[in-house]
Amino acid sequence: MADSGLPRRHPPGARPLAEQSARPGRSFFFRPADAVSQVGGPEVEQRTLAHLRRLRQQVPGIGGSMVATSEGLLVTHDMLDLEPGHAAAVIATTLSVVREAARLTSRGQLREAVVHGTTGYLAVFAVGAEAALAVFGDKDLNVGMLHYQTREAVRHLEKDAHEFRRFATSLPVP
């Protein structure tokens, strides 16, 4: 196949785990053909998605959520209205900037950052050093309930976060 000059949608030698679509629960990881056995495979993604769905059920006003690696790779998502691959990269960038702000101002290790916009909320929670949980809420989101319910979700996600990291480092270097 000839090179079209367009940027590649995935690293050379990798294959898509799932088709790219905006359906909830679809992952957009690109893995080398043998990586599934190296990282725990779809089980980690399914557990992660279950935590996202549980969070949506427990906190009224959540419009969607996602987990992304610190490098900006999508783990999985539960949202309809955003392009998840692009959102994962932006969430990872947000996490990095807010971590640096916390460090510069001597606020300790980042736990969370909440953005309150005119139509709703974006909350980004650190999942160890490996990943971020992003929650998108409408203007009526109960932020206190979100914080309360998210603590347990983050604890569970941290147990699998090393799987997210190993995947990110297993991608071939272009």
Describe the overall structure.
The structure is a single chain. This protein is of the alpha+beta class and 174 residues long. The chain has a single domain (35-170), classed as Dynein light chain 2a, cytoplasmic (Beta-Lactamase), CATH 3.30.450. The chain is built from four helices and seven strands. The protein has a five-stranded antiparallel beta sheet, with helices on both faces. Strand 6 and strand 7 form a beta hairpin. Helix 2 packs antiparallel against helix 4 (143-170). It is globular, with a radius of gyration of 16 Å. The two termini are 18 Å apart. Residues 1-40 and 169-174 have low confidence and may be disordered.
| Percent in strands | 15-25%
Number of domains: 1
Kindly name the structural category.
Answer: alpha+beta
CATH architecture: 2-Layer Sandwich
- Major sheet size, sense and barrel closure: 5 strands, antiparallel
Number of strands: 7
- How much helical structure, as a percent, in the residues? 40-55%
Low-pLDDT stretches? 1-40, 169-174
Continuous helix count: 4
The CATH class, by name, is Alpha Beta
Looking at the structure, the CATH topology is: Beta-Lactamase
Task: Label this structure with key terms.
single chain; 174 residues; alpha+beta; Beta-Lactamase; five-stranded antiparallel β-sheet; two-stranded antiparallel sheet; 7 strands; disordered N terminus; disordered C terminus
